[in-house]
Amino acid sequence: MNNHVFVSKLSLVNFKNYKQADLSLSPDINCFIGENGAGKTNVLDAVYYLSMCKSYLNPVDRQNILFDASFFVIQSSWNKKNEVDQIYCGVKKGQKKVFKKNKVTYEKLADHIGQFPTVMISPYDRNLILEGSEIRRKWMDGIISQFDRNFLSQLIKYGKVLNQRNALLKNMSSYGFFDNESISVWDEQLIECGKVIHEARKKTIEEFIPIFQKYYNWLSGSKEEVNLSYRSQLFDKSFEELLEEAQSQDQRRQYTTVGVHKDDFIFTIKDHPIKKFGSQGQQKTYLIALKLAQYEWLLSRLKLKPVLLLDDIFDKLDNERVERLMQMVSDQDFGQVLITDTDQERIDEIFSKNGIDYKSFFIKDNIIEESKNKVTVE
């Protein structure tokens, strides 16, 4: 239990659809039952917020405030290594977000990342397959950032330097001149940060692939061959060469056209892009395998079991795959799990079949009520 991180208490005020909610959670499995649109996902998102300092679903903080309110507050008690930490997140319109641990305000939110790890599996993960490269980079960077402080600081710095360089290119274009010396100051910093980012992504993906394949095979019964690869311009040439060769193109387009901000992660099934050649069930299995690999990866690095947030994952998975997933959860490989579903009977059946004790909450009309009937398996 010593490497088991879990939320024991969760309090929401004016967060999304909840005016007020106070929950006592089980350190093991917690199920949130309600109709679509009832706000089940928002409970999981609140836990994610307190882990990663941002929403999983909407990165604009003020848009997570209850309609007509001017602020929201999320608070929780996190149990870790036999100690309890109080985490506070407050967002007020027009003000900077406030994040506190045990009543002490963080100067940098980056200092909080990785202390209370979570992994969310959600229908919104489909964007990892369907959308452009930025969302896949952010996903991988989010994993690495939770255990590699230097990577996170270099990533933040790279973003700032890139913005400065792009602003300078735009500025030069409007004045009709190009100053190589001014650009080279930003180039040096971009190269320095970029190399660190590239190496970390490369190392992580190499170690990540076999873990991911193991979970996919486990969930699918080894029916299909899947892969994951890292695409980067830095595999072909050094960052210095890339910037030199792209100089006239950067001038013409007024932004930086090469670098690790162009990297991508390629998802394939039977050597074809899963976006075009994978069925909905295969895509869903692929994404769940990615997230379970993320879980194991973080556990191995942080020596802590992240909180696992399973949002509406039974949709589009056949019964066999659902059974396999729940069997995995019940084999005690995981610590605290929060699950949402629309169907109480399905939840009861899955867990009683696997002999698992769990806690239920019902959500209706923006109110969360704990089930009085604690399910105890014979």
Automatic annotation (TrEMBL):
ATP binds at residues 34-41. InterPro entries: DNA-binding_RecF, DNA-binding_RecF_CS, P-loop_NTPase, RecF/RecN/SMC_N, RecF_2. Its main location: cytoplasm. Residues 7-349 form the RecF/RecN/SMC N-terminal domain. It is found in: Cytoplasm. The RecF protein is involved in DNA metabolism; it is required for DNA replication and normal SOS inducibility. RecF binds preferentially to single-stranded, linear DNA. It also seems to bind ATP. This is DNA replication and repair protein RecF. It comes from Brumimicrobium salinarum. The gene is recF.
